[in-house]
Amino acid sequence: MNITKLPTGIEIPFTNTVISIGKLLAGNLLFNILANASFKLSVTNATWRTFMFWQVVGNLAGFATVLTLTGLLVYIPLHIAFPVTTGLTIIGVQIVAAHLLFHETITPTRWLGTLLIVLGVMLIGKMEA
């Protein structure tokens, strides 16, 4: 079994590292989608109470994205974590929030751009051994 040594000196099994990174990336993506969808919902509501409700939900979800990014920085360098989470957010918000939840039209050119972002995230996320 491979052992990973964290910058703090703590040694953990490699499989736990991969699982932790996966959970943090998934959490970051979900909270980013929730934050952006909440901000969209806040401006589509008629009352100030619903506006404020969705603003609070969006800001809490945004805070959770900061915490998940911070957690990722324990395992991977900033120059990898930031572009990967940002790229995944662009893809997630476009596909899940804009297209599936709000039924916004996404042109073929934008789908091509999304594909290029996916390729870029894959290239950036490929860590050297």
Word description of this protein:
- With 129 residues, this protein is mainly alpha-helical.
- The protein has one domain (3-125).
- The chain is 78% helix and 5% strand.
- It contains four helices and two strands.
- It has helices at 14-43, 48-75, 78-101, 108-125; strands at 3-5, 11-13.
- A two-stranded antiparallel sheet has the order 1-2.
- A hairpin with a 5-residue loop joins strand 1 (3-5) and strand 2.
- Helix 1 runs antiparallel to helix 2 (48-75) and helix 1 (14-43) crosses helix 3.
- It is flat and about 55 Å long.
Q: If you compute it from the alpha carbons, what radius of gyration comes out, rounded to the nearest whole angstrom?
A: 17 Å
Mean pLDDT: 87
Question: Major sheet, described briefly?
Answer: 2 strands, antiparallel
The termini sit apart by 16 Å
Q: How many structural domains does the protein architecture include?
A: 1
State the strand order across the main sheet.
1-2
Number of helices: 4
Structural class: mainly alpha
Order of helices and strands: EEHHHH
Instruction: Please provide the count of β strands.
Output: 2
Query: Runs with pLDDT <50, length 5+?
Result: none
Helix content: over 70%
Query: In what range is the share of β-strand residues?
Result: under 5%
Based on Cα principal axes, name the global outline: flat
